[in-house]
Specification:
The protein is an alpha+beta fold. It has five helices and six strands, in the order H-H-H-E-E-H-E-E-E-E-H. It has a six-stranded mixed beta sheet with strand order 2-1-6-5-4-3. Helix 2 packs antiparallel against helix 3. The termini are far apart.
Length: 155
C-alpha cells in the first residue's frame, strides 16, 4: 500500500516525469533532464547541462556528422537539424538503458519530415558522460546511418 501512495504523491506533486525517479543516480537525473529539455525544445535546460567543452560524436557521412568540440558547435548542429527539417525534428521518446559509473546509456526515438516528403524515423543509442553536474561527452550510435545520411544530406 505504501508504494501506491508514493506513486500517487509523485503524480499529484506535479513533478515532471524525468524528476520522479527517486532511485536514479545524479548522472541519470542530469541526462533525463537534458533529454526532457531536448524533447520540449527548452534551450535553457539544454544549455545549462552541456559542458562548454563537450565532446560530441555524431555518426554517419552526412552534413551534420563528425566530432563537435564545444557546446556552441552542438547547438549549431541542432539549429541546422531544425532548419533542414523546417522545425519538425523532434525527440519523441527516450529511456535509460543502463549506467556505468558516470556514463548513462539511453535509447532515443527521433522523427522529422522535410517539405519535399523525405522522412526520418530513427532509434539512436547515446552514451552520455557526466562530470560536475554537466554532460562532458556524448557518443551517438545510429540504428540506420544510411537513413540519416539521406535525410540530412550526404557529404
Amino acid at each position: 500500500m505504501k508504494r501506491i501512495y508514493f506513486v500517487a504523491v509523485l503524480i499529484l506533486s506535479g513533478l515532471p516525469v524525468w524528476a520522479q525517479q527517486g532511485t536514479d543516480t545524479k548522472e541519470v537525473q542530469i541526462v533525463k533532464e537534458f533529454l526532457h529539455g531536448v524533447s520540449t525544445k527548452n534551450r535553457e535546460i539544454t544549455h545549462r547541462l552541456l559542458d562548454e567543452n563537450i565532446s560530441w560524436d555524431q555518426p554517419g557521412n552526412n552534413t551534420l556528422s563528425g566530432k563537435k568540440k564545444t557546446a556552441d558547435e552542438v547547438f549549431t548542429m541542432s539549429g541546422q537539424m531544425h532548419k533542414i527539417s523546417q522545425g519538425t525534428f523532434q525527440l519523441k521518446d527516450y529511456k535509460v538503458l543502463g549506467i556505468n559509473g558516470n556514463q548513462v546509456i539511453c535509447q532515443l526515438h527521433f522523427t522529422a519530415i522535410r517539405p519535399e516528403g523525405a522522412w526520418l524515423d530513427i532509434q539512436n543509442t547515446d552514451v552520455y558522460t557526466v562530470e560536475n553536474g554537466k554532460i562532458i561527452q556524448a557518443q551517438v550510435f545510429s540504428a540506420d546511418p544510411s537513413q540519416e545520411d539521406y535525410f540530412w544530406g550526404r557529404k
